[in-house]
């Protein structure tokens, strides 16, 4: 488990161009020195991630935001200070110190200040911003524990164990285009909250920007290795070897395994347990297919359904 020496050791690895998986409040990240192109290249190799998918740069102070970006409108700084540290990533124009490999050649960079003491201590001790995608193999389930990381990336230089992550799904991603703020990926910070704190004269939109190619926005992503199906109404019976994931206590048909992400339909609990419940089903040899209950698509439910639909996409029965 976590202690100060482990963070020191991890920081030493980062500072020397190695890779460290570390906890954030959302999911575990696979980190490297963001200013060292060679170190960042190792992330793409270990994750088997296509090079056209840009990475998020993690920082511990606003000084780094200033150094890593340029032409940031001063009026959005108080807005960012309200949400950072926290589960929000903001895409801004990048400065010249950010190597192109980090941003896949885009002239923008995603910046995030995690609300996790271990993560920020790691960044501080490393002495550099840390580029990190989620610590999973490309296209597979995101990790919400050190064990999830170990399963997919056993060859990482070091795993800094900080227990289970709190939020459970990846950060909300936004970008700014003049006075328009655009949602690129839904998360626990909802459009309602963002709109509330936008500077005077700014508008908010969820419409996708066509020019940004980023697999985080692809239809299929975050998938378990077994077929996954989403249902609205609980079927009366399931085929043999079914795993069932529910978000509220209810009478259940007979299945191989049943997991409750929440007993009351509390969406914060559902988000926190979503990937973890899918990992458990993926690891259970007696389960052959997974059925997961849908949630209402408003508020935090939008981000939860986004992850669920992407996880289930490739398993859709042919129309
Ligand atoms: O919560 C999180 O954001 C986690 C933790 C580790 O911080 N990280 C994470 O990273 O989810 P990743 O690589 O799995 O997803 C990052 C996504 C990319 O797929 C892409 O969609 C978007 O962030 N992104 C990064 N930089 C971008 C940029 N310059 N323009 C547009 N999208 C960008
Ligand atoms: Mg990811």
Describe this structure in words.
The mean pLDDT is 94. Helix 1 packs across helix 6 and helix 9 (267-283) runs parallel beside helix 10. The longest helix is centred in the C-terminal third of the chain and has 17 residues, at 267-283. The protein is globular, with a radius of gyration of 19 Å. The strands form two sheets. A ten-stranded mixed sheet has the order 7-1-2-6-3-5-4-8-9-10, with helices on both faces. The protein is built from ten helices and 14 strands. The protein starts with a helix and ends in a 7-residue tail after the last helix. The chain is α/β, with parallel strands linked by helices and 319 residues long. Bound molecules: threonylcarbamoyladenylate and magnesium ion.
């Amino acid at each position: 488990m976590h202690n100060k020496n482990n963070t020191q050791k991890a920081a030493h690895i980062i500072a020397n161009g190695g890779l460290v998986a570390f906890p954030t409040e959302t999911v575990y990240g696979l980190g490297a020195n963001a200013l060292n192109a060679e170190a960042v290249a190792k992330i793409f190799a270990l994750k088997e991630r296509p090079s056209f998918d840009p990475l998020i740069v993690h920082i511990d102070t606003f000084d780094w935001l200033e150094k890593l970006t340029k032409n940031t409108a001063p009026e959005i700084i108080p807005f960012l200070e309200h949400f950072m540290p926290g589960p929000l990533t903001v895409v801004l124009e990048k400065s010249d110190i950010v190597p192109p490999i980090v941003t896949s050649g885009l002239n923008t960079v995603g910046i995030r200040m995690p609300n996790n003491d271990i993560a920020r201590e790691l960044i501080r001790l490393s002495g550099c911003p840390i580029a990190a995608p989620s610590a999973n193999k490309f296209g597979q389930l995101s990790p919400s524990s050190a064990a999830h990381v170990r399963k997919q990336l056993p060859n990482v230089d070091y795993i800094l164990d900080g227990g289970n992550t709190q939020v459970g799904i990846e950060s909300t991603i936004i970008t700014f285009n003049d006075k328009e703020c655009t949602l690129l990926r839904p998360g626990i910070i909802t459009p309602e909250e963002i709109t509330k704190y936008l500077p005077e004269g700014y508008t908010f939109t969820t419409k996708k920007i066509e020019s940004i190619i980023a697999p985080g926005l692809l239809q299929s992503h975050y998938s378990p290795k077994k077929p996954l199906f989403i249902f609205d109404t609980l079927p009366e019976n399931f085929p043999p070897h079914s795993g069932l994931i529910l978000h509220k206590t209810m009478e259940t048909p007979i299945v191989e395994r049943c997991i409750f992400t929440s007993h009351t339909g509390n969406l914060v609990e559902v988000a926190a347990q979503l990937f973890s419940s899918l990992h458990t089903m993926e690891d259970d040899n007696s389960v052959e297919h997974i059925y997961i209950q849908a949630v209402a698509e408003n508020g935090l439910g939008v981000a939860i359904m986004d992850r669920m639909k992407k996880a289930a996409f490739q398993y859709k029965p042919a129309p």
